[in-house]
C-alpha cells in the first residue's frame, strides 16, 4: 500500500517536548508517533499505531506457535477477586481504584491473574482439559509514583500477559518452557539482544521467575552474571554463605571508647589509631558490623522498624531491600523513629536504646540487646543479619553507648538474630551462588518476565480439577508478561542517532520511504513509478509527495521518522536513476528506476 | 488455517446463563463467545474475539476508504478538557470518575470529542491542513444505571469513533457525507438492514444529527417514517403546528363543578353527562388540556418543577421529554413535590396551588395562574405547552379548585405559556413535518450515529486555524460513532434460531466448520482431507476432531456456535461423500470429498 504524506495525519516537531526525560520519548513525540495526554498516559498517532501493531503481530504469532489461545479481558474489574488474593491491599497506591454509581468497588487492572484463574475455574474441571495457555494483548494501568521516561514506565500501557494452567509440576515446567522459548523467538524477531536472568518473584508471589533483560549501559535495572553462565537480577542474587567458625580460642568481646565515630570511616580510622589489631593487620570496613535501621511500610498502612546488621563495607541496596521485605515499601528510619526510641523508653534499661551511630546487637550491661532474643518488651524491633555474619565471625560494632564500640563481638556466641536477610549490595567479584565463579555487574532493561506462580492463585480462588484418579487437585499456574508499549520505547531508545529514529525492519512503520524532491514534474512522476513498483512488490510505502516542501525538510523528516530504507528521487531522474539511502549506515546507492523494487526485494 | 476443537479454549454450556435478558447475551455466553465479569463488563473468549476482529476489519477498511486516519487514545483521561466543555458535570452519574495517587481527577472516557479537538489544536494551524478525519477503535466506559441486555448496553464497550475537522460549513457537510456513506457501506457489508433517521443531537450539543437504525420489532428505539421518505427517531420528530384561530366569537370560559374527575377519562365522561357541548358532538380526551408536573434533575444536582400542558389524548413520552430537557433527567413529580406546593404556601392567593387532578393554567379568582406570566413569586415553576395548543384553541382544563374544571379556556386569550416543548408522544397518522404525509411508528436498534457538532467543542477548547486570508477561524467538527461490540450483539440478536447462532459469512468466526463423526478412523482421515483442502483454498476452518464426543453433541455445538457452513464427515465417507450443511436453511447436500473445496469456493 502507498501512504501519501501530502494527505497523512502527521506533524513532525522541530523542538523536543519539554517533559521528555529520555531519547525514545523525545524522538517518538517529535517524529509524530505519540502525544502525551497526562503523566504516563499517551495517545497513539498513525505512525505509532503501525509500529505497535507490528510488535503485537509478532507477539501473537509466537503465542500461537506456543499453543496459547487469545482472549481479551476488560480493564475495569470488580474488587472481590483481588480482595481474596490480598492484592487489592498489597498494590497500595499503585492501583487505580474507583466506585460505580452504586458504590461498588472496582479497579483498573494492573495484571489479570485473578480473573484468568476464575475463567478457567468457570469452564474447566478435568485434568483432560489441561494443559492450557491463554493470553491477551490489553491495556493495563498502574498508578506509578513517578511516571517518567515516556512509554518506558507509563500509567496506561499495553501488555501481552499469558497464563498457563497445569495440574502437575512437570506440566507447569513444560508450559513455562514453551512461553520462555516463545519469548526468545519474539526478542530475536524484534532484533532485541537479551539475557535471561533469575528474578525475584516479588509481588506476584510465585516460586520461580526469570526476567528477560536487554543489556545496555543505559538500562535502569542492574543484574549480575558470571563467566560460568550464572545470571540474576540484583533482587534475586543470593549470597554465598561462608562456613561457620568455631568459637574456641576467640578472645572475649571488649567495649572500648571510640569518640566521634558515628560513621564507618571514622570508626575504622579510630580503631587503627587507638585500638590496633593484635596481629598488626589494619582494620577495614569489612571488620565492622553496621546496624541500619529500616522502616517498612506495609500496604495496610502499618509501619515497622527493623535493624539489619551487615558488614560495614556494604551499603543497603534499595531494590534488594524492597524485594526482601515485599510487599512492604522500605525507607531509612527518620528522626522521629530515633526520637521515639530514645533513652529511658524501656524500664530497667540504663543507657540508650537506638543510639544513632553506635547501635549494636549487644549491650555491655544487658547482653543481647536487639531482636526477639533480647527482651520480650523489645520484640517490636526485629534484628536481622546479612548472611555473611555466620557464627564465629567477630566484629567491631556499636556498644549502644554514645562514643563506644565493642570489639571482637562474636556472632552466635555473644548475639543472635531473628533471621537473615538479603539487603546488602552485590559487588563485582562476589561469588555466584551456583559456584560458577565471580560475578560482574551489568545494566539492562527489562523486556519480559516469566513466573511460575505455582498454586497460590488457584488455591486462593479454588481452581481445582479432577485428576486421573478422580481426585480434586489444585491447579498450578504460570504468568508471562511482555510490555508491548514498553518494548516499542526500548526499540526506539536503542535505535536512533542525532537525526532521529532508525527502526529495525521487522517493526518499522513502513518498509520504504520514497521522497520526491524539488519541483520538477518528472521527478514526482518517477517517484510515483517507484512507489507503485514497490507497492506491487508487496511493500508498505510511505511516499513524501508534498508538492511545496523543500528537499531539506523532507530529508529531515525522513531521518526523524526512521523508516530504514529511503528512496530519493531527485536530479538523477533525468538519467533514469534514484538513490537508495540506508538510514542506519547513511550509505546512498544510485539505482536505475526500473530496478528499485528488485534491489529492495 | 485449521483450528482444532480438540485443542481449543472453548466450552459450550448446556444451560442459559441466569442473568441473560436477551437472546444475544444468552447465546453468546452459551456458545462460548463471552463471559460476564461484572454488570455490563465482559471478557472475550477466542470465538468472540474472532467475530469482533472481523467487524473491526470491515470498519477499518471503510474508514480508510473514507479517508480517515486511525489513531488511538487512552481510556484514562484528565478532567480538565471535560471540565471546560461542561461534560464533566453533564454526564452526571453516567461517568466513571477516579483520582490518582496525587488526588488529581480523571475519568474513563465515554467519548473523546475533547481530546481529539485538543490533538488537532496541538498539531494543526492552517486551513491547508484541513479537511481532516481521524478515528479510533477503542474501549469506552459509561456507568449505565441499569446495565442490561448483555453487550447491547454495556458499561465497557468497544466503539469506532471518528471526528472530522473543517473550516467551512460546506467542508463539514462533505466530511459528514463521507462518513455517512462509509456507514452505509459498513452496514451493507455486515448484512445489517438500516434506516437513516433524523436524530436529536442531545448531549453531544451538535447542530445536525442522524441515526442509523436497524428496523426490527425487538428494537428498543422507536422511530417514525412516512411513505414520502421522512424518517426520524421519536426524540427528533417535530410536531406540525396548526394555524392559530381568531378569538372573535369564542364564548367566555366557565368554571363548572366536576366532582371526582381527577383523570382524563372520568373528566370526559362527566363532561358528556353533565355539561354537553352546545353543538351536541361528544367531548373527547382531545378536547381536554392535561397539565403534567415534571421534575427535572440537572447534572449539578439542581431539581426544577415544570408543568407541561398537552392535549388530554396524548401521554408524555419519556424519551422525548429527556431530549427536550437535556441534559436534565426527567421524572414525574412525586408526592413530596405536591406537598411542597400545597394550599397556603403563597401569600395573597386563596385556594390551592398544585391541586392534583385539577391543575390548570388559569384560576377563577386570579386569572393566569401558572408560569412566569402569572405572579413574580411563582416563577419557580415554568409553564410549557405542547405546540398544538395554539392561540384560539379552547380547552377543558383544571380550574385549580378541587372538583372543578374550566370549560372553553382559550389559549392566547385566557392564558399564555413560558414556551413550547415537544414531550407528547408521537402517534401513527401524525403528519410528517416535511409535508410528506402521515407517519407510522416502527421499532429499531441504533447501530450508528453521525453528528454535525459544529463549532461547540472547537470554540470551548480554542481550536482555530488561519484561513486563506490569514484570519483565525474556529474549526467546525463532526463526530461519528459505531458501537462495535453492540453491533456484534445486534447481529447475534438477529441471526439465530432455537438451536443457536447463525453468523452472516462476513463476520462468522470461521468460514467452515468441519465435523468428524463416529469413531471410524477413515471418517477422521476424510475430515482431515476436507479441512486441508479448504485451508488450501484460503478458508478459515474450525475442525471438530474431538475423538470421544458423540455426533449429537458435535452437531449441537456446531449449531450453537453458528458457523454458517458445516461439513459433516460420517458414514458417507465409505462412498467418498460428505454432507454440506447450510446452518441457516438447514439443507444438507451430499458432495464428493474431492469436490468440497470447489463447492464452497
UniProtKB/TrEMBL annotation, chains A, B:
<dbReference type="Pfam" id="PF04073">
    <property type="entry name" value="tRNA_edit"/>
</dbReference>
<dbReference type="GO" id="GO:0004827">
    <property type="term" value="F:proline-tRNA ligase activity"/>
</dbReference>
<keyword id="KW-0436">Ligase</keyword>
<dbReference type="Pfam" id="PF00587">
    <property type="entry name" value="tRNA-synt_2b"/>
</dbReference>
<dbReference type="InterPro" id="IPR045864">
    <property type="entry name" value="aa-tRNA-synth_II/BPL/LPL"/>
</dbReference>
<dbReference type="InterPro" id="IPR023717">
    <property type="entry name" value="Pro-tRNA-Synthase_IIa_type1"/>
</dbReference>
<comment type="similarity">
    <text>Belongs to the class-II aminoacyl-tRNA synthetase family. ProS type 1 subfamily.</text>
</comment>
<dbReference type="GO" id="GO:0005524">
    <property type="term" value="F:ATP binding"/>
</dbReference>
<keyword id="KW-0030">Aminoacyl-tRNA synthetase</keyword>
<protein>
    <recommendedName>
        <fullName>Proline--tRNA ligase</fullName>
        <ecNumber>6.1.1.15</ecNumber>
    </recommendedName>
</protein>
<dbReference type="Pfam" id="PF03129">
    <property type="entry name" value="HGTP_anticodon"/>
</dbReference>
<dbReference type="GO" id="GO:0005829">
    <property type="term" value="C:cytosol"/>
</dbReference>
<dbReference type="InterPro" id="IPR033730">
    <property type="entry name" value="ProRS_core_prok"/>
</dbReference>
<keyword id="KW-0963">Cytoplasm</keyword>
<dbReference type="InterPro" id="IPR002314">
    <property type="entry name" value="aa-tRNA-synt_IIb"/>
</dbReference>
<dbReference type="InterPro" id="IPR004154">
    <property type="entry name" value="Anticodon-bd"/>
</dbReference>
<dbReference type="InterPro" id="IPR050062">
    <property type="entry name" value="Pro-tRNA_synthetase"/>
</dbReference>
<comment type="function">
    <text>Catalyzes the attachment of proline to tRNA(Pro) in a two-step reaction: proline is first activated by ATP to form Pro-AMP and then transferred to the acceptor end of tRNA(Pro). As ProRS can inadvertently accommodate and process non-cognate amino acids such as alanine and cysteine, to avoid such errors it has two additional distinct editing activities against alanine. One activity is designated as 'pretransfer' editing and involves the tRNA(Pro)-independent hydrolysis of activated Ala-AMP.</text>
</comment>
<feature type="domain" description="Aminoacyl-transfer RNA synthetases class-II family profile">
    <location>
        <begin position="40"/>
        <end position="504"/>
    </location>
</feature>
<keyword id="KW-0547">Nucleotide-binding</keyword>
<dbReference type="GO" id="GO:0006433">
    <property type="term" value="P:prolyl-tRNA aminoacylation"/>
</dbReference>
<dbReference type="InterPro" id="IPR036621">
    <property type="entry name" value="Anticodon-bd_dom_sf"/>
</dbReference>
<dbReference type="InterPro" id="IPR036754">
    <property type="entry name" value="YbaK/aa-tRNA-synt-asso_dom_sf"/>
</dbReference>
<dbReference type="InterPro" id="IPR044140">
    <property type="entry name" value="ProRS_anticodon_short"/>
</dbReference>
<comment type="subunit">
    <text>Homodimer.</text>
</comment>
<dbReference type="InterPro" id="IPR007214">
    <property type="entry name" value="YbaK/aa-tRNA-synth-assoc-dom"/>
</dbReference>
<dbReference type="InterPro" id="IPR002316">
    <property type="entry name" value="Pro-tRNA-ligase_IIa"/>
</dbReference>
<keyword id="KW-0067">ATP-binding</keyword>
<dbReference type="InterPro" id="IPR004500">
    <property type="entry name" value="Pro-tRNA-synth_IIa_bac-type"/>
</dbReference>
<dbReference type="GO" id="GO:0002161">
    <property type="term" value="F:aminoacyl-tRNA deacylase activity"/>
</dbReference>
<dbReference type="InterPro" id="IPR006195">
    <property type="entry name" value="aa-tRNA-synth_II"/>
</dbReference>
<keyword id="KW-0648">Protein biosynthesis</keyword>
Amino acid at each position: 500500500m502507498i501512504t501519501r504524506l501530502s494527505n497523512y495525519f502527521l506533524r513532525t516537531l522541530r523542538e523536543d517536548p519539554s517533559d521528555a526525560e529520555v531519547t525514545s520519548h523525545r524522538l517518538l513525540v517529535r517524529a509524530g508517533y505519540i502525544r502525551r495526554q497526562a503523566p504516563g498516559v499517551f495517545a497513539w498517532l498513525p505512525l505509532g499505531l503501525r509500529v505497535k501493531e507490528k510488535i503485537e503481530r509478532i507477539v501473537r504469532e509466537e503465542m500461537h506457535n506456543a499453543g496459547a489461545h487469545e482472549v481479551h479481558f476488560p480493564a475495569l474489574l470488580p474488587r472481590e477477586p483481588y480482595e481474596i488474593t490480598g492484592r487489592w491491599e498489597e498494590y497500595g497506591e499503585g492501583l487505580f481504584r474507583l466506585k460505580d454509581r452504586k458504590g461498588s468497588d472496582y479497579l483498573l487492572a494492573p495484571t489479570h491473574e485473578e480473573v484468568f484463574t476464575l475463567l478457567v475455574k468457570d469452564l474447566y474441571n478435568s485434568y483432560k482439559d489441561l494443559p492450557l495457555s491463554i493470553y491477551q494483548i490489553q491495556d493495563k494501568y498502574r498508578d506509578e509514583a513517578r511516571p517518567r521516561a515516556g512509554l518506558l514506565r507509563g500509567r496506561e500501557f499495553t501488555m501481552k500477559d499469558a497464563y498457563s494452567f497445569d495440574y502437575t509440576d512437570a506440566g507447569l515446567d513444560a508450559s513455562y518452557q514453551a512461553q520462555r522459548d516463545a519469548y526468545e523467538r519474539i526478542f530475536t524477531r524484534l532484533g532485541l539482544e537479551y539475557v535471561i536472568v533469575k528474578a525475584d518473584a516479588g509481588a506476584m508471589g510465585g516460586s520461580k521467575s526469570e526476567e528477560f533483560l536487554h543489556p545496555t549501559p543505559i538500562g535502569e535495572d542492574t543484574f549480575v552474571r558470571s563467566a560460568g553462565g550464572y545470571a540474576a537480577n540484583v533482587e534475586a542474587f543470593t549470597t554465598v554463605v561462608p562456613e561457620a567458625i568455631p568459637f574456641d580460642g576467640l578472645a572475649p568481646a571488649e567495649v572500648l571508647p571510640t569518640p566521634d565515630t558515628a560513621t564507618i570511616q571514622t570508626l575504622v580510622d579510630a580503631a587503627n589509631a587507638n585500638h590496633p589489631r593484635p596481629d598488626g593487620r589494619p582494620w577495614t570496613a569489612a571488620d565492622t558490623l553496621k546496624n541500619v535501621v529500616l522502616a517498612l511500610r506495609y500496604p495496610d498502612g502499618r509501619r515497622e522498624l527493623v535493624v539489619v546488621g551487615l558488614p560495614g563495607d556494604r551499603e543497603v541496596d534499595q531494590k534488594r531491600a524492597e524485594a526482601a521485605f515485599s510487599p512492604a515499601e522500605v525507607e531509612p528510619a527518620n528522626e522521629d523513629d530515633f526520637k521515639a526510641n530514645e533513652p529511658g523508653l524501656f524500664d530497667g534499661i540504663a543507657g540508650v536504646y537506638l543510639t544513632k551511630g553506635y547501635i549494636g546487637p549487644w549491650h555491655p550491661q544487658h547482653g543481647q540487646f536487639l531482636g526477639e532474643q533480647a527482651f520480650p518488651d523489645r520484640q517490636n524491633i526485629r534484628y536481622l543479619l546479612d548472611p555473611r555474619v555466620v557464627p564465629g565471625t567477630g566484629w567491631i560494632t556499636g556498644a549502644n553507648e554514645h562514643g563506644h564500640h565493642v570489639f571482637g563481638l562474636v556472632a552466635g556466641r555473644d548475639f543472635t538474630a531473628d533471621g537473615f536477610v538479603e539487603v546488602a549490595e552485590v559487588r563485582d567479584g562476589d561469588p555466584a551462588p551456583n559456584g560458577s565463579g565471580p560475578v560482574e555487574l551489568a545494566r539492562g532493561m527489562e523486556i519480559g518476565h516469566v513466573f511460575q506462580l505455582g498454586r497460590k492463585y488457584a488455591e486462593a480462588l479454588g481452581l481445582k480439577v479432577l485428576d486421573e484418579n478422580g481426585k480434586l487437585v489444585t491447579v498450578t499456574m504460570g504468568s508471562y508478561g511482555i510490555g508491548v508499549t514498553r518494548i516499542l520505547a526500548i526499540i526506539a531508545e536503542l535505535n536512533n542517532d542525532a537525526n532521529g529514529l532508525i527502526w529495525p525492519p521487522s517493526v518499522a512503520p513502513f518498509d520504504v520511504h520514497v521522497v520526491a524532491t524539488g519541483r520538477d514534474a518528472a521527478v514526482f512522476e518517477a517517484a510515483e513509478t517507484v512507489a507503485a513498483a514497490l507497492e506491487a512488490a508487496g511493500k508498505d510505502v510511505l511516499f513524501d509527495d508534498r508538492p511545496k516542501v523543500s528537499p531539506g525538510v523532507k530529508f529531515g523528516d525522513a531521518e526523524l521518522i526512521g523508516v530504514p530504507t529511503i528512496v530519493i528521487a531527485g536530479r538523477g531522474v533525468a538519467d533514469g536513476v534514484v538513490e537508495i539511502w540506508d538510514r542506519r549506515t547513511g550509505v546512498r546507492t544510485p539505482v536505475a528506476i526500473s530496478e528499485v523494487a528488485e534491489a529492495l526485494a
